[in-house]
Amino acid sequence: MDACLRLALLEAAYTDDFVGRVRDRPVAELRARHVTVSEWPG
């Protein structure tokens, strides 16, 4: 298995995991976090 393919598979697995975790999170929590981040100075 070449390194590029291995990296692509690893990235896909991480992305899948990340998307799954975000999807499982309550929308209210995401909204609260978004507001907090957008109100940061700078």
Structural key phrases:
mainly alpha; 81% helix; 42 residues
Give the termini distance in whole angstroms. Answer: 45 Å
| Contiguous helical run count | 2
Largest β-sheet summary: none
* Low-pLDDT runs: none
Task: Sum up the overall morphology in one term.
Answer: elongated
Total beta strands: 0
The helix content is over 70%
Taken as a percent bin, the fraction of beta residues is under 5%
Please state the CA-atom Rg, rounded to the nearest Å: 16 Å
Mean pLDDT comes to 71
What's this, in brief?
81% of the residues lie in helices and 0% in strands.
Task: Describe the fold and architecture.
- This protein has 42 residues and is mainly alpha-helical.
- Helix content is 81%, strand content 0%.
- The chain contains 2 helices and no strands.
- It is elongated and about 45 Å long.
Give me the secondary-structure topology.
Layout: H1 3-24, H2 27-38
